[in-house]
Design brief:
Blueprint (H helix, E strand, L loop, with lengths): L1 H10 L6 H7 L4 H7 L3 H24 L5 H22 L3 H7 L1 H28 L8 H20 L4 H6 L1 H10 L10
């Protein structure tokens, strides 16, 4: 898969053949077809591997010995940077990522499930510590997950990255206190 990832990154999905992957990995095409039915299957395995690596990074953040608020904020920024880094590291895959976004969605299901679980753990701990005032950690994990997904494309393209880093305090205030004015909560 690493050989395929490098080829996809260098040549793009369309310009990479199963023969290219077989030659670069020093395997016969028959051997390659034993493990993967098509180039698309290899591509999705590459994307899935990237997402599993990201999930592992996020688990480490979620298990840090810091407050739930600190972990949630760190989680958001590490997640966004890691996704951008993965897409950019893969060169031509960046274009394929945007072009094949619907098919990438199929591969993301497992990552999405893992992410919601990690977010729920952070939110549930915050509820137990009476730091977060939410009624349903499952629902809030889902909402945070989809909000972050909505930020991905503009963040990867660079439209949102600078703003999110400059406006970290505003994001924290919005996330932890909402938009309703309450003089006791606003920092």
């Amino acid at each position: 898969m690493d050989v395929a990832r490098k080829l996809f990154a260098a040549k793009g999905f369309e310009n990479t053949t199963m023969n290219d992957i077989a030659l670069a990995s020093q395997k016969g095409r028959r051997t390659l077809y034993t493990y993967f039915k098509s180039k698309e299957e290899i591509y999705f395995a590459v994307v899935e591997n990237e997402l599993f690596q990201l999930a592992d990074k996020l688990k480490l953040v979620a298990r840090k010995n810091t407050s739930p608020e600190e972990r949630l904020i760190e989680y958001i920024y590490i997640r966004m940077d890691a996704i951008k880094e993965a897409v950019n590291r893969n060169g031509n895959l960046k274009a394929d990522f945007f072009k094949e976004v619907r098919q990438v969605e199929l591969v993301r299901r497992e990552f999405d499930s893992r992410e919601k679980k990690i977010l729920k753990e952070i939110l549930s701990e915050g509820m137990e510590q009476k730091v977060f005032h939410i009624q349903d950690s499952d629902f809030m994990a889902l909402m945070v997950h989809y909000a972050l997904r909505g930020f991905e494309v503009p963040y990867i393209r660079g439209e949102l990255e600078r703003l999110m880093k400059e406006k970290k305090d505003s994001i924290m205030n919005f996330l932890f206190y909402g938009i309703k004015k309450n003089v006791n909560n606003v920092k």
